[in-house]
Fold each of these.
Amino acid sequence: MPVALTYPGVYVEELESPVHTITGVATSITAFVGRTIRGPTDRPVLLQSFSDFVRVYGGLSVDSTLSYAVQQFYLNGGSQAVIARVHNAAKLASLTIGGGTTLSAANEGKWGDGLLVHIDDDTREKHDSPPTSDPKRFNLYVKDPGSNTTEFFRNVSVDPADPRFVMTVLQQQSQLVRVSTMGASRPSLNAAVPPSADPFSDPSFYTAFNVAGSDGTAVDATQISDPSLTGKGGLWLLDQTDLINILCIPPFTRDVDVTTPTWEAAAGYAKSRKAILIVDAPSAWANTQAVVSGLGAVVTPTDSAAIYFPRVLMADSLAENRLQSFAPCGVVAGIYARTDTNRGVWKAPAGTDASLIGVSALTVNGFDPALLSDAENGVVNPLGVNCLRHFPVIGRVVWGARTMRGADVFADQWKYVPVRRLAYFIEQSLYRGTQWVVFEPNDEPLWAQIRLNVGDFMQSLFRQGAFQGTSPKDAYLVKCDRETTTQTDIDNGIVNILVGFAPLKPAEFVVLQIQQIRAQS
């Protein structure tokens, strides 16, 4: 009772609601790990469009298969991508600006070679009344002509005790430069800036970076999946993200496929993050016979990975729009995202509406007509290999929805991609939506609240058509009571919640039975 009852009358109390709404998590946040020409290497970045990728990571590059995969992802309906940049011996561009201070590009690559800097002493002290001067303060202007980005940092100081200490300011606010060596005196000044003038419009007003950066060499398994990187780099940069749903590792180069150790590490990581790894078929697989003989060497079958065959031919804007061969992971991830948006995570990302946007041909049986026949599809489908097909009128589509545990011989409960992804979606949503339960009194009132909230969430999915059955009791169950949580569990601080669901499985084989009947006279 929140207030003392002192006078005759009506008292109003607000009671806490037992409802703790469980919100479904995102289902198609796609992580890409690989080489780019610029961008941070110490953390992943969440992007909302390919324009964001161009701004942060420099856009398309012939040396970056990841850049093409990201472009294809957004082209096919993707909306959120997480980029983890890795590099092999790339170096920072730099410039010594005097006073013992050296600036370096914010991250590795030749992009930093074009950076321009202007320094002047027109600080705020000169505009005080009366004017004064601080010999350690200055203004710093930085321009990147490559991205047409300009940054201004006024009234920064070389004094570590100053709240505008230049090293701290650049670390926290600049996307272009960092202080690699800190001097004790103010840097060298450029010529004075005329009123309203662009300090970079005249060469006399700026200083160009003069120590060249380097893009390094092609990445390999060492930079992406070496066990020594666990918890700090490569694939494990993604530990810094809260949620990923799909994982893509584009080929190391256009001519070098991802190797088995990297696929193994990525598959294990995807499973630990409750995500699906999209595995690209090796470029050497030119026909279904190669698939049958080579499948066992790609990666150990896992329900957290799905493999797609063959590769795709798409126009390359950096090669006069000539058709080039690309691994399909970016295209397929975009279709996952598009299907989730249009139908839901429980719908298989395959079928006549899973069109391959931007794909001109497929690289199998020769580039013309580059078709897989039904018979050839029937050879690899029972092995858990998802095919990309071309059909008259319909066009090019994804024509398979099995995980790598989808081979018929496994008889696995996670045979189908939508079933595995729906289970991950429910697990992640309930994990986040039941955090309030921790440290609550472990008895029937708590269990009733759990049944109410989890039941509401499952009912919402049932109404959207996520489960089998015509009634809730056929579609799902939520159990939390004395049967699931015994007195021993209570004594040990444990509450057990049983959630079951009847997943929809794709109609992979449609059988039409046709029979002649005799007309009755």
Amino acid sequence: MESFNWILHLLGRFHPLLVHFPIGLLVVALFMELSTIGGKHKGIREGTYWLVYLGTFFAILSALFGWLLRIWEDYSGELVDNHQYTGIATAVLALLTTILLRLTIKKKLPDFKAYRLGLVMTVIVLSVAGHLGATLTHGEDYLTSVLPGSQEMYDDAKGVALLAELKDTDTITVAQQDRLNLEVRAIFAHNCYQCHSKNKSKGELVLENKAGVFKGGKSGIIIVPGNAAKSELYRRITLSPDDDEVMPKKGKTLKENEIELIKLWIQNGAHWSDQDLKVFPEADLALVKPDLPESDEANPVDKLIGAYFEDNGLEWTSLVEDRTFMRRAYLDIIGLLPKPDAIAAFVNDTKVNKREQLIDTLLADTQNYTQHWLSFWNDLLRNDYSGTGFITGGRKQITDWLYTSLAENKPYDQMVAELVNPIEGSEGFIKGIEWRGVVNASQRTEMQAAQNIGQSLMGTNVKCASCHNSFVSNLTLEQSYGFASIFADSVLELNRCDKPLGKMATVNFLYPELGSVEGETVQERLYNLSQMIVKRENGRLYRTITNRFWDRLMGRGIIEPLDEMDNIPWNADLLDWLASDFIESEFDLKHLIKRIMMSKAYQLPAANYTKQEEIKSNYVFQGPVLRRLSAEQFSDAVSQVISPVYHAIEYSPNKEQITAKRIWHPEIKFDRKVLPEPGKRYFRKSFTLSDNAIESAKALISVDHSYVLYINGTKISKGANWKIVSELDVASFLKPGKNLIAIEGVNEGSIANPAGILFSMKVQYDTREIMQLDSDTSWKSTSDTPDGDWTAVAYDDIAWATVRNYGTSNWGRLIDFTFNDHSGTFARASLVKQHPFMKALGRPSRENVTTSRDEQATLLQALELTNGEFFNGVLEDGANLWLERYNYDSEKIVQNLYLKSLGRKPSEAERGLLLDVLGDKPQPESVQDVFWSTMILPEFQFIY
């Protein structure tokens, strides 16, 4: 019988040939089947059936031949197992789909839904099996190896230099033996792991670790220390490329210098270093402040940039003029446009140090600085006001702690320590998101904490290594689980691609050379981590934030991408000097901003990179990159110039306690509370005032959608826009004793929708005593038209219902709903929860760490700015506001529009064109058109 085993062996080798048939046939069958939905293309249905039949046949045959190949060839490991299981699953699903198809054709099933679902599932599993097969054939980094930053994983020049060094010496030191071994292991990693690793141990040979190398494989020992000629490994790598036994196969023969390194290693005893193999480039952790080059430049940044220019054959160009610098500085520090009078004063100022004074003044504007930079930190720390996780309480924001930290200019090392080892208010950062339902092992909250810290603070990609050994860095699965264990209250079991490995994690930090984080409790470990991560020796932490700030102010990081801090910087000395200077400033973030902005490099004209590729790769610094306004900057600029874009905020920095809630009549259907129905509702609130004289009485009211307000039977005001808060002086309508507030409210629309009254009244007596009345559940309401004078104090409302509290979740906190002075203010976009308009302009959801936003305009943004109902509504409101403000004077409208939006007067050509549009008697529509044409100008939308 054994004499016929070769037939089975041969059939197994047909697996790679057959496996492509079901892929093509079933995928095409799915597309053809989808095209028949709705009764279309009936003529192709017969062909679709045959594709399914043939695809199923070949799927079964491929799975059978793959099983034979697994038995007769040297394939083993988890990856092989997974490929086999998904291949068999594909065959089973394909067979089931065929059965469902036959049942449908025979009218035993009512329609094609079950068959189509089976076909979709078959193709999905088929795709997974195909990917695993490609990984087996071409290696786990088959897809990622072509990504930017992954091209040069093995430094061939480094190996050549080491070979030359060792050839010239008679004895090799222990340090040199370590280096030699690490180079050989790097050669194994890039040429051999795809067939000889723990995941795919062909011939039972594993070259991934010491035990596997010296154990050998199915054919025996592969290395004889001290004798390369008798070592099977050396024999195989020196065979002719056409030899059947040559290694590695697939035409990827080793280079001559690589073979020589392996030979030298074996000849010198095949020493195995205790050091971890660093397959990928890895930046030094230590930070050393470079010496500054000799230069006439005063600013240290410019000394380094000057030397860089000299090396790259570049010269300094003239700095930007004052108007451009001022606009750039305003937008970068406080996120707002400078006002026309401030621009004129700055341009006419003759002081030599006026730019430094401007920077100092803007950095001292605590409120606007904080509200602008809040967006950067919200992105970076994955902090938001609403979204996934908040509904279930599985997520907590850190806004109050973050706002206070920025306003106080808290040292960065203290901020990091308080994020890692939370104080009250900062614990939301490492809490992570508790997702609804079951998540995989790489998304458990402890792992999220490790991922967030790694990416946001250290510029390290922990996500890849949370599922398997990283394909883009030296991080291993063990390291990521060791890091995540810091935040876990129990021992974590390692999971590779969500499959338990039966191995428990050991608590550790990604960079253990900084110190130990071990502790009996989570709190002890967090404290140890907080002390260790902020050490001055941790150059990675301080390089990362320095690189992020350079990118923020210059449009492109010194290292790109920002989250891959092992990549080579375009100027390593500049990065290390700035990071060292930041440490010496006692981690002062404002110092770092000023240091960059005071440089000539920052004040150069925006560099003209004609191709986006010039910014991403082969980058040469020539000046700041032209930057688009962020979603928040654009919104705030429109609010400054035209009309407030947003009226409500989610976080209020002023700490004023407004306890009023939105209330409405309770709507009940089938014993359940439902949304308010359209129509008119009536509200009453009785209250008693003392006999003391009233010094002042102010009332605030906002109703969605419209209202009429009565006090003690007298009509006081009415309104039909909930965004506009009516601030009323009501002292003359009040009296000692019993008083009454009555409101007639209307909810518009054709279906049930949120509606609410927001009311607050503050009465101050001459005794300085204050009485405040707010809308709350002590108010009463009815949906029936009242009989009699329902606005009178004496009216009997005993039959009326108690109102329902709708909170403020649908409306946010109106910025004008305050008894404090709010003249000239508008809702800063950074304080507003995610809005469709800002989302379209690029504000992220913040469910993940976001370290940079896409600078490229999208079709969605173009459509939103062109035809978006929301944006056009803002322009419409602004048009009516401006016509009233400038008394329908077209000349004043044009002049002020350009001064406020662009910081300059219009040219004669621009003035003439816009005046022609507006005419002598401008209408709201023409003013709106003029606004729009200005807001979409590159001069408005970009930071030059």
Amino acid sequence: MDQTTLEVSPRRRAADHGPLVDPADIARDIGAVGVHAGNSREARAAVVQILKRWLAEARKTAEQRLIADADGRSCAEALSRFQDDVIRVVYDWIVTKLYPSDNPSSGERMTVVATGGYGRGMLAPGSDIDLLFLLPYKQTAWGESVAEAILYCLWDMGLKVGHATRSVDECIRQARADQTIRTAILEARHILGDMVLFNELEQRFGAEVVRGTVPQFVAAKLAERDERHRKTGQSRYLVEPNVKDGKGGLRDLHTLFWIARYAYRVKTDEELAKKGVFTRREAQTFRRCERFLWTVRCHLHFLTGRAEERLSFDLQRELAPRLGYRGHSGLVDVERFMKHYFLVAKDVGDLTAILCAELEERHEKPAPVLDRFIARLRPKSPRGFKESPDFQIDHDRITVSDAEAFARDPVNLIRIFALADRYNLALHPDAMRLLTRSLKLVDEKLRHDPIANQLFIAILTSANTAEVVLRRMNEAGLLGRFVPDFGRVVAMMQFNMYHHYTVDEHLLRCIGTLQQIERGGDPNLGLAADLIKTIQPRNRDLLYITLFLHDISKGRPEDHSIAGAKVARRLGPRFGLTKAETETVAWLVENHLVMSTIAQSRDLSDRKTIETFAGVVQSLERMKMLLILTTADIIAVGPGVWNGWKSQLLRTLYYETEPVVTGGFSEVNRTRRVEIAQEEFRRTVPEALPDLSGPTLEAYIGRHYAAYWLKVDLATKIEHARFLLAAEAAGQSLATRVDLVAGQGVTHLTVLAPDHPRLLSIIAGACAAAGANIIGAQIYTTTDGLALDTISISRGFDRDEDEERRAKRIADSIEKALRGEIKVGEAVAAAHRKSSARQRSRTFRIAPDVAINNTWSNRYTVIEVSGLDRPGLLHDLTAALSRHSLNIGSAYVATFGEKAVDVFYVTDLMGAKVQTAQRQAAIRRVLTSVLEDDGSR
């Protein structure tokens, strides 16, 4: 897809409108403020009020121009010029009326210099202002008074001002020792005062600081960038990106320009093209990216009234129409806006890679040390490949032998990446530039070329660096052109809180995750790491192809699983698959969500659940492939989404279904698997729980049903035992426990209580009343009538000690509610009125859905509800079921971002299914009303 088609067409091209406010008008108003003996404070207060009025006028005009022109760079430059004018006018008023000096000494000279972002001559509405008061040698009383008066005026205006007062000598000395100060001075810009002093600073900075230190500066700036990316999220495709500090954001452009300015001594991006670092087209890309990111950032600041840099979901929805986006081609306005954003972020990454490669060529940057960039062969001069004379190795990079390499044979567009993967080589920037200019060679003939497709499948299924090479193909624009269906999802975000990445990034991460599963060695990968060793060799390749295709039809009106299966059937023959192989891939794509859905939202101890799933998979090999696919898919959604509980559920579903699909034979039958789980527990107990032994141990094991032993992981079983025994020793039938889960953003609350029909409803209500958002629940009952429920809630604090205090407060609320000391319904409504759930209801729109099914279980009616999650939803749903005289046999609670999917296995008070259509309709109506309610009732 041509990226330019996604740009917002400005209502009119940006033009130089002149200053936001005429500085002569500001000077006139301030000049009218007189200073008399004893009234300097009052005079300054009067000046500040005038400046506030002009600041409001300037920002109003800037916002109007921004909306009209859609040019954030022009807006930022205008705001910077306005700030310059304010400082000049204030300075003139101070030195003429507040602190006049009729016969200034040589020391009473001052230069006011803009540094940092302000030094670049661009300011967002909420940006800090960084000033340097440059002195000839030492501070004087006059200079100190002037600088202080300027700062107080700016602070009193409500501006955030960073400042330093230094001599030239001090600037040079501190710049040598501190990279932050060095960077600030690198962007220094004269505002007013002694120009000779400023020129001296610039001259000495270049001669005494920059000279001979380029490699160290480049390394330091790139290290800063990497640390910033680590803090804000390693991917540039996070669905709630940070416009300033995120990967592919403005700070990356700034870092790129700092390095270029330091290394090449240039002051504008145009000069980078003249120096040959960027081509003219790349320089235009730099300006386009900068303009777009500044536009988004300025709108963010104006919209929120503060220096907000994170594009949260609610702000995305408000910004999209404000920026002129409209729904089109199956994408709503906000998805088109974010698609454009991610394409820009990709371009920023490309520009950074080009500059780094140029610096390496000049030996101004150390060569990369990551495996991907380490060549196995290090020739001292360019050397060719036996596979093709059109390529050669140059400085550990693969490049073309001549400028006609791609035109001569378009298959070389794919072949260069296949060779890069095979020999673990990076691509030379010259080759990448030629490839980008040659993308028009990708036509139907190349797409259906057998050799090109064979090379592509070799990359996709490679055990070497498939994810990295595919990502480079994607960033070059080749992957979306070679596979147009993939091109439709490039930079496509899914407007929900569950998926952390764009669709294309998720697909590529799935490939990398499957490689991790295949390599093994990580116990957190669950059963998939064992099963992948047992599948047929050809099916291993089919798994890679399936993962590449499983979400390729997102954003279409048709269900993406069904549409994706059609795409798989169309692409399979092109990729060289047989008819049977194509059908296997299509089946996996169409059913890629089935195993996850059943494992997380069905009763796995119910025979009907297992028979239904077995009827879907039909063979053991398919089930193995589906489990591996499901594991990779969940892990690649984002950090913390995969956990031991989901791993255990998939394992249980697999082993429960295995004897059914194998005609009654099972390598490990259900009874034996329960025995194995119990034996594993017995082996662990002596070290973990030395007081639990002999008859006491066997009695404890007998307290849990078979489903518990199959569904719960060993570590949790040990903690449960410790919890139950401690409660028993204390004579408690009601107790709670808190567990913080590192790295998952989740806290677990385990509740032990006498079982009764409204137990889950009361627990859910107490959590909601305490401000906790439930994202999952595991519910078990012991043979002696106790409920052992683990409720997963979203973490509220980063610091463990703060989160532990919060969780204990919530647990205390649960205990009080179960003892009847809290009126849960009233507490839930009161808490909701204080919450931000209504904001979520404005941001996300999910149609409520209630499905009532009597075929999913032999004993229970299964009710599945889905809708917009909110605090108290689970309480309201379970309370509604209780009011309709339904017993909840088991419940399966899951939250996918902002979407709640809860499944209840119910019977009437007589233990029978809900059969009548009238009663089912009544239940459906009341549950739908709960889903539609914002919870304030």
